[in-house]
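Form 12-C: Joint structure prediction
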Amino acid sequence: MSLVVSNLSVDHGAIRAVSGVSFTVESGKIAAIIGSNGAGKTTLLRTLSGLKSATHGSAQWNDHDLFSVKPEFNVRHGIAHVGEGKSVIAELSVEENLHLGAIWRKNKKEMKSTQLDVIELFPILGERIKQRADTLSGGERQMLAIGRALMSRPQLLLLDEPSLGLAPLVIEQIFQTIKSLRDQMSLTVVLVEQNALGALEIADTGIALNLGKVVVAGSAQSLLNDPAVRAAYLGY
Amino acid sequence: MRKRLLLFIALGWVLLFIGDRVDELRVYQGASIAVYTIAIGSIILLTGYSGQISLGHGALMAFGGYVAALCVANASLPLWFAFVMAALLTGIFGGVLGFAAARLSGPYLAGTTLALAVGLPSLANQFSILGGEQGIYLDPGLPPARLGEDFSQYKWFFWITTLAALITMFWLSNILRSKYGRTWRALRGNEVAAQLCGVHTGRQKVLAFALSSGLAGLAGALLVLTISTVSPSAFPLSLSFALVTGAVVSGIYDLKGVMLGAVILVIIPEIADSVASRFGDSLKIISTLPGLLVSALLILAVLFTPNGPGEKLHHLRHKRKAHSG
Amino acid sequence: AQAASQPGITSTEIKLGITSPLSGKVAAVYGKIPGAMKAYFSHVNDNGGVYGRKINLISKDDAYVPTLAVKATNDLIMKDKVFAIVGALGTANHLAALRSANLSGRGVPDLFVNTGFSGFADKAKYKTTFAVLPSYVMEAKIMAKYIDDNYKGKKVALIVQDDDFGLDAIAGFETAGLKPAVTIKFPTGADTVAAAQGWITGKLKPEAVDIAIIFATTTTSAAVLGAAAGLQYRPTVGWMLGSVGGDSNTLRAGGVPLAILNGAIGTSFAPDPSDTTDEYVNFFKSIYAKYVPGSTFDLTVLQGMNSAMLTVQALRAAGKNPTRAGLIKAIEEVVSATISRAPLPTNGLPTNS
Amino acid sequence: MYKFISSLLIGLSLGAIYSLMSISLVLVWRSTRVVNFAQAGQAIVSTYIAYEVVNRTGSFWLAFIVAILAGALLGAIVDRYFMRPLFKRVTTGPIVAIAPVVATLGLLGILRAIVGFIWGVELKPIAAPVSLDGYSLGSEVLPFAPYNALVILIVAIVLIVLSLLFQKTNLGLSLRASAFSPEIARLSGVRVNEIRTLGWAIAGAAGAIAGILATPTSYLSPNSLDILLVFGFAAAVIGGLESMVGAVVGGLVLGLGVTFVSNYVSTSLIFPTAFVFLIVILLVRPSGIVAGKRSRRA
Amino acid sequence: MSTENSLLAISGLTVSFGGLRALSDVHLEVKPGEVVGLIGPNGAGKTTAFNAICGLVKPDTGELFLDGHKHAWPQPHHLSELGIARTLQGVGLFGDLTVLENVMLGAQKFSHSGLISAALGRTGKDEKVLRERAQTALERVYATGIADRRADTLSYPDTKRVAIARALVSEPKILMLDEPAGGLGQQDIEWMNSLIRNLTAQMSVLIVEHHMDVVMTVCDRLYVLNFGEVISSGTADIVRRDPAVIAAYLGASKVNS
Ligand SMILES: Nc1ncnc2c1ncn2[C@@H]1O[C@H](COP(=O)(O)OP(=O)(O)OP(=O)(O)O)[C@@H](O)[C@H]1O
Ligand SMILES: Nc1ncnc2c1ncn2[C@@H]1O[C@H](COP(=O)(O)OP(=O)(O)OP(=O)(O)O)[C@@H](O)[C@H]1O
Ligand SMILES: [Mg+2]
Ligand SMILES: [Mg+2]
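Section 2 - Result
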């Protein structure tokens, strides 16, 4: 039970954005992927969920080959992706955005209860439930995006910079939430973050990317203690 | 800038020289190309730059055509003045329309201009001064005597339309390169950001619509010159669509391709004609082929050179460089 | 020897050209004309042609749009180098073509234009143009006279297309001193049953008209009569149909019930195409059936074949070595006589259809 | 009074037909953000097919069903083999905004040419399945026949069925999500391509219904639905493009407006009326009568 | 409240959207040469306050003072003339314009040529002025090297630079930055800090930001919004220890770090 990525390379035209990346995330663990702007983090995640096609390499989630189907079917294998930059549908209401997350599941009752869980996690969404998503503040949208992904009750959650634009308290909450999702529901999380410190603090393993290549990988603790990592990504 | 002026003058000489060497049919086609050049230019300004879609430019051409014909037929004004009036009044009409249009976007604007194209010509029958369906005769007068005896009517039209097209293209290319062009492109991309840069977006959209209308009016007046008559049926919906086609084929964003678009609009029916005659003279083929070809071309253009031949060439050149380098 | 220098004339061929709407909104009505002309020319060609020359008719589509008519006419004259233009159709179109391509200045014969616009009779302006049909003005005058003779003082309504064709009719009725109580003008393409219901319930019925004249195309006649059928409406005296849209065959094919047609008064300047006793109709009909099998023979076909027949007569009259000028002269001198001898127009009187 | 009631009834019948075309345009707009000008072409093809069926079997209702199926199939084909490649290829530059408009116009031309080539320009009639004789009110016969009632009934059914489909099922949400943001919809497990094609198919069916219902009261020719397209589009814009109720409201408003102006002002003002209506309504409400809320700007 | 010596001040600002009150009775001022931070939880109304100042939303009540004088709420396109420039929370560059053109657009107010001279192609001088100003602005954000690139091909940090250059080029007296550091890596954040500090010689800065490093480093004073109300204000040190702010916004962990 694990996510296994091996020797993955991805190109944007002539630019090789991800180059020979391999790593494994054990089921029920959090992997933090850190790296500066343009390191290839987003590209990596988009490839895993199937939005972008890989040039080389493979990725397996348990027995499922992530690259064998279109993204809409990866969701059915329990893989949810929250895109970079508030991935919500602006023209739909908050509620519709949430329903969308569970749309491929037919069980309405289950959907209702999941929605309650999500609202408990982000109460502001409950207050704005009938509003169009584009009236939300930047941070509220980020919460909605995560909420939408959780609506599909995923086993593997791919999160692209969830802390972007969020208030410190909320970031902390979100990181705590991720942690508790892991602990309580044994959710596996691939967490891409600029906020390396926060991410590594909750993660089990850490991977630092630079120019598409893995520069350091190991337990999160070891990265936190690595002076090179501290200098490059943590700012102290 | 001076260089550009010289370029235009040189181009003018070349065109006139060519006009002297070819037969009359080509000269007539040349005049049509010049007219389409202006009309397509007006679409490029509007759609390519300010991002507004018009499916009703045929109606604006009709407006200009009527203005010019009225000036000549009723007020006996000289031709050049009639053309200036056509551009001016259509521009003003477009500006008024633009006040409504500027608040609309995308499909709403497309719908409104489409309704304009359908509605405006049939208004012509409401006013007897506009000559009903039969229209008004625009008497172009004879070419000036000093051009010689065998200087044909069509050559005269060719000179007039080509000169008008050159002047318009010179102005238009200047405007599109100036801060106006930049502003329109900007507000097409992000209206709020443009406002924060100090752009009065409403006013700029109206301005673009008015200028584009003015050009369409001028093109309409020149079109009327080449057929000597203005009547409501001369500006069918298909004309409006043809202009959009021409603009897309030219590269909607690129004034350089504009002549190409115009040439294609004129040439396609010719090709259709010769293909049809090869298939014998089935009336069905004669009547369906031109429509089929124009439509097919349009689709091929959006599919394969969506941003115009200019961009395509650019890419090819880069590829070649990349290969050789 | 002289003929060799004439455009469109070779020792074996006479090239003629026609522009007409083969596509677009009026194609359904007029699109058959070139085919009908070709049928007649084929018949002539198969019987030896004109002094041994075959007639070759080149047909161009103008979609009823003046710009396209100009282009097509220019192509015919300058590219295909036809000897003459025949049977051109549509007033606004042909006016534009005439003026822009300068037919009279170039001396290109412009024969038997298929429009009733009275202006084409102006020989000072259009030296080479000949109209064959009596103008719609004439037709309207005759109708007006008929009404005056038989239904003096009755309330008349006039339904016309808002274009040259309709304007001609209005002018004709006016000069004949008939003032319609109601005039309904509608833009081309807006002649649906719903619109016609509006005309009937909104104008004809409230005004209690006695005679309603439909001076429009078949589509309009069908729409109005269809709407009338649904409303069980009939003007107190009855309907009166102009020649263009009064063809009962077409109307019946379009589902207009026979009952409503009965008692309608039609004007037709050609013999009724369904009249099997008329020798010309039968003659044309057999030709058309032979060369265009499967197509219905209707008034438009008759009109086209008639133009073609006149063209052949004119060409014959122009002699063995036809020139453009000669052709024009021949028509002026000879064909005018021929026309008066020919059965067309047969009578100015309305026939019951 | 008779005149007024008649105008009202004519306007409603006319508006009902506009509504159908308008609904089909709204459906495509909602599922792919495209104004489908080819709809008139698709509808004309399915109506000609219906004409052939009527001719051969004499059954209007069989033809009606065949037309719906043909319309749906054609809609699906247009999306699958035409719009999808287009969206794949055209991704950057100012052309993106107008490419769909232009492409569907091109398709309209092609479909019309094909129809002209196969069936020619001669007018073809389709007889109405029920009587065209108006109901009477006292001594007056009204311009409202069983056929008009049938049309309005069908519009109502189409509206109700589609509204239920959209509001009570996930399909509506999937359609809108795919239209607004294919990527997010995909990430949520929506089979975006199939859903969009389905949207086009449903729209094609609605357009086919409009085509076959419009024909018995007029003729069929390669151009006979053009006016319907223009009015249907105007109706959709008046209605706000987003909702099917809006489409129907827009259709009825336009049908009534055109009829009243024609009957009370001038018969020749039909087309200008549509334009004036559009301008006036859009000046008051720039995104239609039944518009969604304006979005936040920054 | 004294608004005499402030560049910009708002008082009693209330904004609501339908039934939702996004801001209520907000007071805020910016003095010359000051960097003022506006912080608060997501949805507290920070961007809305910016939008009100910029004329992008219409306040229910409230007054605006510029240079100590009462001023009507401006229209967005008047801001540049009033000496106010703003960046957007998204980046808001014009994707198909080049970087230079983007920045030149921000300098539009220095161009005075009209349509006629543009048509005749006589705007060379004018354009040159704009170009030079744009170049200078790009130099200030160390982005001269990318002047000819199309804006939609830039890397994320570069877009942020260009957005700031476009704001700077109009020579504002007040620069409003909405989350300038959002999404930036550590090095770029440090660069941003020093840039903002350097700007204070020419202008005042009003900044919305969630990155506490940035806020605490560059801001002279802070206002904290929560549910549309100012719950705390003062210097960074005072605010970060305010229990209300900790509870509503910072969370316990930030206080000690
Ligand atoms: N659509 C694209 N086309 C071309 N190049 C791209 C595209 N998307 C990303 N790139 C390039 O690929 C590389 C990796 O980009 P990516 O977005 O994956 O980085 P990232 O680590 O997510 O950065 P950030 O922290 O800014 O989000 C960069 O050099 C970027 O310029
Ligand atoms: N146009 C609008 N219509 C309805 N509600 C709106 C609108 N604009 C903003 N809001 C609401 O007002 C509140 C304040 O929003 P605002 O964008 O000002 O928050 P913010 O403080 O900038 O948050 P963030 O830090 O997340 O960007 C939010 O709850 C938002 O949902
Ligand atoms: Mg990223
Ligand atoms: Mg904000």
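Section 3 - Comments
Confidence is low (pLDDT under 50) at residues 338-353 of chain C. The pocket of adenosine-5'-triphosphate (ligand 2) is lined by residues A 128, 135-140, 165; D 296; E 17, 20, 22, 40, 42-48, 89 (CB under 6 Å).
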